[in-house]
Specification:
alpha+beta; Rossmann fold; OB fold (Dihydrolipoamide Acetyltransferase, E2P); 2 domains; 6-stranded mixed beta sheet; 4-stranded antiparallel beta sheet; binds adenosine-5'-triphosphate; ABC transporter ATP-binding protein; ABC_transporter-like_ATP-bd; ATP binding
Amino acid sequence: MAHITLDHIRHAYGPNPQSDQDYALREIDHEWNDGGAYALLGPSGCGKTTLLNIISGLLQPSHGRILFDGRDVTDLSTQARNIAQVFQFPVIYDTMSVYDNLAFPLRNRGVAEPEVDRRVREMLEIIDLSGWAKRKAQGLTADQKQKISLGRGLVRNDVNAILFDEPLTVIDPHMKWVLRSQLKRLHRQFGFTMVYVTHDQTEALTFADKVVVMYDGQIVQIGTPAELFERPSHTFVGYFIGSPGMNVLPANIEGSTVSIGGETLSLDYAPDVSGARRVELGIRPEFVRIGREGMPVTISRIEDIGRMKIVRANFAGQPIAIVAEEDAEIPSEAGITFDAGAINIYADSWRVGREG
Ligand SMILES: Nc1ncnc2c1ncn2[C@@H]1O[C@H](COP(=O)(O)OP(=O)(O)OP(=O)(O)O)[C@@H](O)[C@H]1O
């Protein structure tokens, strides 16, 4: 397995790119740890597949280099990079048996037959197809075929990385959960370097140790699920992670005083927002308290979502979402307060920390 270096990677599909808008990937400069499980998460068109294809070697970046364990592999083919890939739709040989499909990548590399047998049987157990080993892949369900694809990706133990491009799209919801848990277990057991593309936040947060959030051709944050929740580096991460997403309110800052509409609150530090065209305060709905005290809000709707209520309200001329306990009393003349430690300040969409 390999440590992956993305060294100043940029990619444009068209010729003669001039501005940032011409790039499907703007500058990406990161180190990914050997044995890490990374999920690339972001909306359609943000560049996830482009980045994955650059890592696998299906695509040559317009600029920059990619290194595996310090070795430049930018000009190498997928095969020479020694990478396993699992795509959105199954890629298997219909006329071969399930067993032979799984054995294929091993036999191809000259692995001795007793070892092939041991690993194929182990993989058949993991993907729960032991009873189907002798069956031809033709005629199996889409679920079963995709399980074979996953098995083919995971059966080798000599690959530098395993790349997954939305592999669970065709899998039914219950099996999705089972396979995701199995992938996680396999990752713990074998320490593969895994890169997993998805636009589904639940899938990313349950699978990965590190979630790489992409937006508009950029990586806007790489963090653990907790970091993405508590300290979104960019307002997009705040919106995209969490349900409902973070409240982002236009604000003015003078020293450590924040004004939102006619309301003011004090921070225990003075964020440096000098030169910013747009300043915003971000607060997750989970950290807004509602009661009789605090800054006044006008409630527009209350949604019951089981153990919680989502209160939709208007605060200083802006819509705001508040998560309240199921049995919380919501007065008609309500006020809100923000948990001080959960306030984030943004200058032109990027978080300004205490450190400045
Ligand atoms: N072969 C191509 N030629 C030209 N433009 C492309 C090509 N492939 C992708 N793009 C453009 O590059 C940008 C990034 O696309 P990419 O497929 O990497 O995004 P994505 O995040 O994987 O989206 P999705 O989740 O829809 O697959 C998009 O604007 C897309 O239209």
